[in-house]
Amino acid sequence: MLLATTLVACGGASSPEEAVRSQVAALQSAIEERSASAVAELLDEDFIGPQNMDRRAARQMAAALMLRHQRIGVITGPLDVQLQGEDRALVRARAALTGGEGSALLPDSAQAWRIESGWRLRGGTWRITSLTWTPALQ
User: Its domain of life (predicted)?
Assistant: First the structure.
């Protein structure tokens, strides 16, 4: 799934907005598949997150989350994709993340978030340049 989504995002999408949406789906798949390296591949070399988090720190945070939970679920609401020129985009969404152990029917933890991400088209691939998240219930 991740490979197919990424291939569409890199060349097969018919519009920049569809390509960005496809990369968001690839990010969701990477998180659910617990692949910190696949998450890192979606981050631009100039990535910046909360509290000046760089690409390496973001990968480490993703790896720690994935070690903590055997199962991770991501449920996103509608994406608000705003293209900014030919090579930049801003994506806003609400998402719920769940985490659990083993084959339990219900997750051990869940949190709803408001997420905003900046994207840049570089070398034919859309990558995340910035990412912020705040609890959705504040």
Answer: Bacteria
Distance between CA atoms of 41 and 106, rounded to whole angstroms? 30
Q: What is the pLDDT of residues 78-134, one digit of tens each?
A: 999 999 999 999 999 999 998 887 666 666 788 899 999 999 999 999 999 999 999
Write the CB contacts of 80 (distance below 8 Å, at least 6 apart in sequence): 91, 92, 93
Query: Number of folded domains in the chain?
Result: 1
Give, for 26, the enclosing helix (H) or strand (E). Answer: helix 16-32
CA atoms within 13 A on the CB side of 30: 21
**Rounded Cα distance, 119 and 99, in Å:** 26
If one counts every other C-beta atom within 10 angstroms of the C-beta of residue 46, the result is 12
pTM score: 0.84
Please name every residue paired with 98 in a beta bridge, in sequence order, or none if there are none.
Answer: 73, 110
User: Which range marks the domain in which residue 74 is found?
Assistant: 2-135
